[in-house]
Amino acid sequence: MAVLERLRPDHAPALLAFERENRAYFAASIPDRGDDYFSGFDVRHAGLLTDQAAGMLHFHVLADDDGTVLGRVNLVDVADGSASLGYRIAERAAGRGLATSGVRQVCALAVADYGLTSLRAMTTLDNTGSRAVLARTGFVEAGRTTLSGRPGLHFTRRLTDADR
Questions:
Q1: For the domain bounded by 3-163, which CATH number is listed?
Q2: Is 95 left (phi over 0), alpha (psi -120 to 50) or beta?
Q3: N or C: which end of the chain has fewer CB within 10 A?
């Protein structure tokens, strides 16, 4: 069973392993992070933790009992009671409901702990799995967009006290 945890310094090795192991899998449906992401991981991780402490973003991992990262669910661009949601699940853990569970948990944290009132998300048109997760977790389509040259959709979700 995976547990949602707020990103911590000690997650770095498992998170890097997760990103490396799933790089090709992720690149099939979302833009690749590029080689610089991996070569500068430790510095980037420390910077994200600093930004998280300042309330600019909220990063989470879905970790297995042994600390293996199976996914991540993040809130970025936090401002004026709103944030952008992003998530990714390891190939070996896909199709088990982890994304849906993680997004639901982060929506609850967004209200209860982070004081947010709305979330945004985007996905490409051909990413049917991501579109299904967003629909199951209360996001509604809000328009078309382009993601790295690919057609996509923009979604929004109003958060309420019932999300706690």
A1: 3.40.630.30
A2: left
A3: N
